[in-house]
Design a protein that fits this description.
With about 240 residues, the chain is mostly helical. It has eight helices and no strands. Helix 1 packs antiparallel against helix 3 and helix 5 runs antiparallel to helix 6. The model has no long low-confidence stretch (mean pLDDT about 95).
Length: about 240
Amino acid sequence: MFTDKIELKDFDKMEPEYKELLGHVLCIQADCEIGGPHLYVETMLPAAPTKLDQLIVARTAAEEIDHYRKVARVAGDIGVDVSFVLSQPNQKRFVETFRGLITTWEDNAVFGFLIDRVGRYQLEEFYDCSYLPLQRILPDIVTEELGHIEYGYNKTLELIQSGDEGKAKAQRAVDFWYVKALDMFGRSESKRSERYRFWGLKRRANAQARQDYINEVGPILTNMGLKVPDPNKGRLYM
């Protein structure tokens, strides 16, 4: 296992595999950061139920765009141009979860609650990673992601507490996004994932990260009065 810590000045000395993997993971991260706003801003900004919610939707999008900017700068410093993801159509996003549109408020709430939580897991993979410039941008990004998760949770809880109709809407949204969330961790037997871990660019195997997520989210859903969806139903990646 690779345990050195790498600065930008050391990057050119690294093995080709390390360079390729770092560039690839930064490209995917940039695409995920910008992919969220492309899912919900157009429909949810005018559809938010209150002016405060409208403000928070706009602020969340602005923060995600800033996360993209920070990741793009780290990528650009190693010669990887990720600007193409800014105008990439949703159908061509790297991660299947972002290949659509959010058109209902319950989907927007649950997306923040469940999918931004996966975003937190993805960022946590880089904690204490071998590439220090990536490690340095994490604290502010993770803090803002925690805010997005909390807002999504609170809005989902509001739906549940509004009555049977609201609870049913929340459950349907959870049934849809929970499976998407689990798929975001990738294939359990991913060779690329093992190479990320070898080079110190990620901490957990895909299967372990997914199981940690399941263990965290299940009790939260139960405490909210919702059913935990079947983790194997409708999955694209096992």
